[in-house]
From TrEMBL:
Single GO term (MF): 5'-nucleotidase activity
Organism (species): Terrapene triunguis
Pfam families: 5-nucleotidase
Annotated protein name in UniProt: 5'-nucleotidase, cytosolic IA
Annotated GO biological process: adenosine metabolic process; nucleotide metabolic process
Gene field: LOC112112784
GO CC, one annotated term: cytosol
UniProt-listed InterPro entries: 5-nucleotidase
Organism superkingdom: Eukaryota
Amino acid sequence: LRSSNPNEALVIAVTTRAIFNLEEEHQLFLTKGKEEYVKYQQLNEDKPLEQGTAFAFIQAVQFVNEKLLERNPEEKGLFDVIILSNNSPESGMRIVNSAKQHGLEISKFCFVSDEDSTQYLKSHNVKLFLSADRMDVCNALQRGVSAALIFQQEVQTPSTQLRVVFDGDAVLFSNETDRVFREKGLSGALEYERAMEAVPMGEGPLKAFAMHLGKMRKKFSQENSPIRTYLVTARSGRDMGIRAIKTLREWGLAIDEAFFMDGAPKGPLLSQIQPHIFFDDGLHNIQGAQDIGIPSALVPSQGRGREDAVC
């Protein structure tokens, strides 16, 4: 985006299937092959693609940039969005045209054909990677980049204020307590938390992105901020909330609102918040959010974890 400095910018990379609805085209690629897919994309290169799951999130990111530049026209610490694509350059014209026709201010496009696109994340200083391909997301997480899996879904159009919801364990925080819970049950997890209350939790896969977002959030006053962040966790506030709050304090991460749900469904609360993106490691939470039109992103566990949510 304009005026951003790669060293100061908060760089977000999205794949074409995360930001646009390419499900039909993807099926064509899988069933008829690359040649037919390229031919189809070239024939339709002036026909804009429909919005995908991450589209509203990227739009809201642009709104934050506008507010940052209103505050300071010389601001260099903006969001910078890159579209990363496994398309070849010859079939990529439709992607560029669609971004322009939808009014997205994206100037960086990487068309890498069939290469592993995640190898370019570090060189572009990417702080968050959103993809509709599980292998992409797992590769990015293994490279130490905050990443999440996007599914094509119906999305409610939320407010212009960028609203981001993070789950706690295995997303913002490490999955240490989840592991204890799986091995020793709830009473074992509660005992572990009481013993570790004064010790900050380890970093989860989305911690780095949350910290960068928090830094950007601090540029605005509480009342006029175009960014609002939320922690919505299955932890109980009474037994497990203290350690979570102490960890955030230790990190210097200010979250606007925190909800300790004690295992209750997250859907009704998410419906009220109406976030642009909801990060969670539990497929049941993701599916519940999708059912009510909340743009959702699965953070797969690395190694042992919940079924269908593992790299």
